[in-house]
Amino acid sequence: MSRTAGETRTTARPPEPPGPPDEGAASTPDEGAASARGDGAAPARPDIPDAQWNDWRWHMRKRITNVEKARDWLTLTPGEEKAIAESAGKYRWSVTPYYASLMDPLDPACPIRQQGVPALGELAEYSGAEVDPVGDMFYRKTNRVVHKYPDRVIMLITESCPVYCRHCTRKFHTTDVSGTYFRDNEGESYEEDLRYIADHPEIRDVLLTGGDPLSYQDGKLEQIVSGLRAIPSVEIIRIGSRFPVLLPQRITDGLCEMLAQYHPVWLNTHFNHPKEITPEAAAAVDRLLRHGIPVGNQTVLLRGVNDDVPTMRTLMTELLRIRVRPYYLYHCDNVTGVSHFMTSIEKGWEIMEGLQGHITGFGVPQYVLTTKIGKIPLAQPYFTPTEGGLRLRNYRGQEMVVDASVHPITEAELR
């Protein structure tokens, strides 16, 4: 199984999808680039010149967006082919060559493949599913600004992503049919958004999200970041991006040097499985850190992808190895088109119990459920007030009672 905990890989050079060569670039040989055969054999993967493979723009131009291109990388199942066909015009779909190279070409249960390739589950109807369970549209104040918490806002600056993750909380925001949180076109002026933030000096923290903000070229992104930095009350600028996972080649020295001019800048990314922690991803994180940009991680608990203790424990320790701080473990939202990835909250508790005490403390993320009233911590308590004092439980399940005279529980007991 491709879900084996601790599995790592050195990225192979996959084939260039069919089509005309890039202007000014040498053609890639066609030998072995035929679509996957029906006999279950893995597609052939000829080398791609490093100059192309290391260019994030090449990957964006060569994204996989249909069955024909996908067959150069994967032996698709009938269910996957049907899901791709039936999701057309409903949910966007694209996968970068880099991210496709992490997928097991023969195993539809591959945790990377499940995150990137449409499945029939996303077309099914589930009880309680909503297009916006976290209330982004309710809290939207301008075309892009969502003001949900007292001192911070998010700016939804684009609908575009390098890979349209099948589990996206904002799946509606990136659909093909009327699926947007924007009031106006995303290309509209930022003047109204920046003015709202400037007119609310309580806003000290702005998170750029979308879509993926790093889909923009450096110059366009700098216009937004510099506009925010010109607002005196904005102390922190954060970027939410999955590019370090889906296309780490995007994290160039030029991008990092630009962002470093506007410190403090933070970046939160989204590793969900140990297979995603590749040498390329580690190098991208290192470039960010060397330019003073801290990197945090927000994992989503996904059925069939990371919903077991060994996988999650390995993911967290591998993140620490590349100096990424685990931040949140999100319970999967009951989003329309995403519900098939949901686990029970009990499963989340089981995984948190398997992390607490078993790995270093700052490697344990906070388990939360995002709702219309905010992020709700879901951690089980390790203490219970009793008549005799405080009953404590450790990660092994061992218990002890601490007398209230030693550790008073209420303020009245301190007197």
Description:
The structure is a single chain. This protein is 26% helix and 15% strand. By secondary structure, the chain is α/β, with parallel strands linked by helices. Helix 13 packs across helix 14 (345-355). The protein starts with 49 loop residues before the first helix and ends in a 12-residue tail after the last strand.
Characteristic terms for this protein:
single chain; 415 residues; alpha/beta; three-stranded antiparallel sheet; 12 strands
How are the elements arranged and paired?
Layout: H1 50-53, H2 56-61, H3 67-70, H4 78-87, H5 97-100, H6 111-116, H7 136-139, E1 145-149, E2 152-156, H8 191-198, E3 205-209, H9 218-229, E4 236-240, H10 243-246, H11 253-260, E5 265-269, H12 279-290, E6 295-301, H13 309-321, E7 325-331, H14 345-355, E8 366-371, E9 374-377, E10 383-386, E11 389-393, E12 399-403
Helix pairs in contact: 13-14
Major sheet attributes: 9 strands, mixed
Helical proportion? 25-40%
Order of helices and strands: HHHHHHHEEHEHEHHEHEHEHEEEEE
% residues in beta strands:
15-25%
Low-confidence stretches: 1-44
> Quaternary status of these chains?
single chain
Shape: globular
How many strand elements? 12
Give the integer mean of the pLDDT values: 88
Q: Which structural class should the secondary elements be placed in?
A: alpha/beta
Major β-sheet strand ordering: 1-2-3-4-5-6-7-8-9
* Contiguous helical run count: 14
Distance between the termini: 60 Å
Q: Nearest-angstrom radius of gyration? A: 23 Å
